[in-house]
Amino acid sequence: MTDVKTYLREWAMPHVLCPGCAHGIVLRSFLESVDQLQLDRNKVAMVAGIGCSSRLVGYVDFCTLHGTHGRAPAFATGLKLARPELNVVVVTGDGDGLAIGGNHLIHAARRNIDMTVLMLNNSIYGMTGGQAAPTTPEGSVASTTPQGNTEPNFDACKLLIGAGASHVVRVLAANPLEMTKVMADAMTHPGFSFIEIISDCPEYFGRYNKVGGGAEMLSWMAVRDEGITIPLANKSFVKHVPSSAPPSGMKTGVLHREVRPVYAGVRGEQ
Amino acid sequence: MGRNEIRIAGAGGQGVVTAGRILAEAAILSGSHATHSQVYGPQSRGGASRSDIVIATEPIAFPLADNIDLLFVLSSDAFAKYEPELGPDGTLIVDTRCAPESLNGDTPQYAVVDTARAVSGGQLVTGVVALGVLQAHTQCVDAEALRQAVAARVPVQHTKMNLEALDAGMGLVGGESS
Amino acid sequence: MSTAQLIQGNEACVKGALAAGCSFYGGYPITPSSEIAEQMVRLLPKRGGVFIQMEDEIASLASVIGASLAGSKAMTATSGPGFSLMQEHIGYATMTEVPCVIVNVMRGGPSTGLPTSPSQGDVMQARWGTHGDHPAIVLAPASVGEVFDLTVKAFNLSERFRTPVILLYDEIIGHTRESVVLPDSVDITNRTHPDVAPEDFWPKEAPPAGVPPMPGFGDGYRFHVTGLTHDHRGFPTNDGDIAEALITRLHQKIETNLDEISEVETYMLDDAEIAIFAYGIVGRSAREAVIRAREAGIKAGLIRPLTIWPFPTAEVAAAAQQVDTMIVAEMNLGQLIGEVERAAAGATEIVSYLRVDGEPITPTVLLDLMMPGTGASS
Predict the structure, then answer these.
(1) Cα angle for residues C238, A67, A120 (degrees, 5° grid)
(2) CA–CA gap between residue A184 and residue A179 (Å, rounded)
(3) How far is C191 from chain A (nearest CA, A)?
(4) Candidates 3.90.79.10, 3.30.420.40, 1.20.1260.10, 3.40.920.10; correct CATH number of B3-172?
(5) How far, CA to CA in Å, does C48 sit from each of A81, A248, B62?
(6) Angle, nearest 10°, between helix axes B159-172 and B143-153?
(7) Do A264 and C62 lie within an 8 Å CB cutoff?
(8) Alpha carbon distance A173, A233 (integer Å)
(9) pLDDT for C55-113, tens place per residue?
(10) Residue C47 and residue A268: Cβ atoms within 8 Å?
(11) Option in C32, C177, C288 nearest B35 (CB)
(12) Rounded to an integer, what is the distance from CA A43 to the centroid of its chain?
């Protein structure tokens, strides 16, 4: 196996991620999946929006597009249609992908554009300072929900299955080997693959909700993930979560897979 | 004649827009410069409809109608809307069905709508009958060019009917105006 | 040369884009621009290009930028409300130096306004709609034939200068059919590709001025693109000196090449005592008014910018030096008149004729303004 460091732009370091943030683990798993598949790195295009997760693309030695907030699937659609031989990977976060960019995400899924979307869900807006996201569990504290979040949160995978994504997976950042496998699998799937990666934000979510640092948050994930449910996925360990909240977590693993026609725009016969 | 502004006004469904395009295309085939504009509204069907055609021997500076030389009216609504805008030097031609009783007796009237119905059983070729009248009445474009333009614009399965409509329109002119 | 044909401005735009080598169209339906998309989907695939109808105008321009980064010549078309949504990515394309063409067929505003009526209300938005200090190239055709020519020019300038170029015309020009004779072929400019091997691509230092070469994604050059202020490697930085150098270069690559960008038509201006400043469809009215004024013995002339941004300050200043009166006619409440006044610097009397009722400014009203005894000519 190649040293994953060879896939990095080491000159671009130090990176912007906080200590304890699992996004770096996610990136490593991704690079290992690229290596496993022996993809030509000239043909890998990573497209991101705005946020902590989206900054990952700056550090990898591929063709990388750091776009605007939420619009990565739309940039990626143009890129893929214009250059079908590219392996197009979108890196987005829960705020980027589900709030400001929700429309672009569901339409890319509906069209079944051949791309892989990695949505790193840390349940909060990290880069802007810990504001509530569409994924912040009810009751959780964020800088804009000081008394606890009163809005219901999204189940991203259900949303994407409903929108027509042909391959939908949820995986934990606490399981790096599983992540590598899942990502390699998604990149070989013909069509739109969506991977929700349950990551962490110790700096804001962990601190505001007093659930410890990165190590503690990842331990929780590892302990609770039994391959079926993960209480941590909806942060039900958080003491602010009202007792009436559903007791079960969100499922991990491959949640949906089908093969259906891939959309490549209106184009002439080649 | 440097510049000739023609407005064909009627109701949606009479083929007024298509007729305007055909007239402009016939003018081009006749070696003139031409423009065609229409009114866009939110509705796809019904309501008043109009085509403005500018025909000129020189390149056309202003492409829209500014001072209509000839107004051809094919519906009562269009008469009410556009006749008042016609200047004192403008020529008016009206369909017999939409001419109000108060209309000046010198105004040429032709049975365009009835002729279209006789040819096609409906109103779709009304605009083309009007083109026939217009050509015969004003010689604003070459008759053969107009025939070519009609044939080039209408669906091929309707070519024969439209050419009949055109000829019927031309036939209305020449003392037979009712 | 081809024969004369009767086509709409929006059709001429499509023909111009195809002649210029457009190979990607991403758009969203909006009146009065939709004919462009409707023609593109029929013609572009036959030329080996790709068409997609996106979920909104934000996504439309994002897809265009993505396609351009992959090496395509790419465009979108819209009208006011969609143009508002596109501002985000006009800024992004400017900052990341990604060539693309944006057509705005203007309708009455603000907001959804008058969807089927003409307007020139987006002139300042085309210049300043996206946030931050940025250059802008905006072309304003006045006829169906000019839509063709300036669409070609828009692609060429965007490739030459790696910047978005906006084609701005109104509903009348978009929808009116005119007889045009289109050329069989046109001169085409393509973006400059790097002349070094991929391993030597990363520039050692920022270019002092000018336009850096641009590879495409998938060409073997692996590089980073970001809308954040970035250094010569394309990587984000907060260094103030680098930020200033970048913004300055983005402006200078346009401002030092005005001879390639700026285009101004004058008509009967040489001995004119009264001039009309107009652009787009109003330029057509003005030309007709000048013709009629000359027939009436009035020494009238026309100055009509085809490039409205960058504003042709030198040309307007020269005209202002010469004439006694300059009539500025716009289908808005006065957008370019401020630029005219700035350029004229008091050298001539400036009179405005402005209209926002969704109706065109006609030659007759402009002629009346120039007739003896009116405010403009007294």
Answers:
(1) 100
(2) 9
(3) 16
(4) 3.40.920.10
(5) 12, 51, 37
(6) 150
(7) no
(8) 11
(9) 999 999 999 999 999 999 999 999 999 999 999 999 999 999 999 999 999 999 999 99
(10) yes
(11) C177
(12) 21
Q: What CATH class has C1-261? A: alpha beta
Q: From chain C, pick out residues whose CB is under 8 angstroms from the CB of A78.
A: 24, 26, 52, 62-70, 74
What is the ipTM, given to two decimal places? 0.96
| Contact criterion met (CB below 8 Å) for A266 and C51 | yes
Measured CA angle at B146 (ends B145, B151), to 5 deg: 100
Our answer on whether B and C touch (3+ beta-carbon pairs < 8 Å) is yes
Q: List the C325-330 sheet strands across, edge first.
A: C264-267, C300-305, C274-277, C325-330, C349-354
Backbone phi and psi for residue A41, each to the nearest 5 degrees, phi listed first:
-70, -20
From residue C11, alpha-carbon distances to B8, C57, C193 in Å are 23, 20, 31
Q: Which residue of A has its CA nearest to C42?
A: A266
Q: By the 8 A CB rule, do C9 and C144 touch?
A: yes
A136, A139, A209 from A240: Cα distances, Å: 12, 5, 8
For chain C, domain boundaries: 1-261, 265-370
* Closest C-chain CA to B67: C364
Summarised one tens digit per residue, pLDDT across range A16-51 is: 999 999 999 999 999 999 999 999 999 999 999 999
Domain C265-370 -> CATH class: alpha beta
> What is the nearest CA distance from C166 to chain B, expressed in angstroms?
24
User: In whole angstroms, what is the distance from residue A50 CA to residue A73 CA?
Assistant: 12
CB contact under 8 Å between A75 and C62, yes or no, is: yes
Domains of chain B, residue spans: 3-172
pTM: 0.95
H/E element, C354 = strand C349-354
Whether a cis peptide bond, with omega within 30° of 0, leads into C194 is no
**Both structure tokens of C192:** 């400059």
Which stretches within C131-280 are classed as H helix? 144-161, 171-175, 240-255, 258-261
B interface with C, Cβ–Cβ < 8 A, is 21, 24-25, 27-28, 33-38, 40-42, 60-64, 66-67
Residue among B25, B40, B62 minimizing CB distance to C175: B40
Contact B35 C31 (CB under 8 A): no
Chain B residue with CA closest to C364: the answer is B66
Q: Do A72 and A54 contact (CB within 8 A), yes or no?
A: yes
